[in-house]
Give the backbone structure.
Amino acid sequence: MPKQNEAVSLKSQMQMEEFDNNERKEEIFSRAVRAGKRTYFFDVKATKSDEYYLTITESKKRFNNESGKFFYEKHKLFLYKEDFLKFADGLNDSVSFIETGVIPPDRFYEQPEISDRYNAGVSEEASADPKAEPEL
């Protein structure tokens, strides 16, 4: 019997897949990126109204000790056209920080209260030990 958090996760995954199946008109473009034990899938899809969006799926092969079988654990992210620039900025800033240790300049968008809360969190984390293990 699945644990409560596993049941919630499964329900959430099923809801997202149901949304994906109902909203999706067709897959337009797909790219798989193999990275060690993980594979990332970048899928451009279109809604029934021909609006493009991106799904990014992380897939990891896992082994279930109880059943003795392998399965794929998947995590999906849905990204819509109006958020591409902000998402790319955040990704690029994060990668740059990891590579250089230099905090990138703040970015300001049309919702400053969100930017302020985010920047406050970044400042606190930046003062922490950079070699410390990340919290999961």
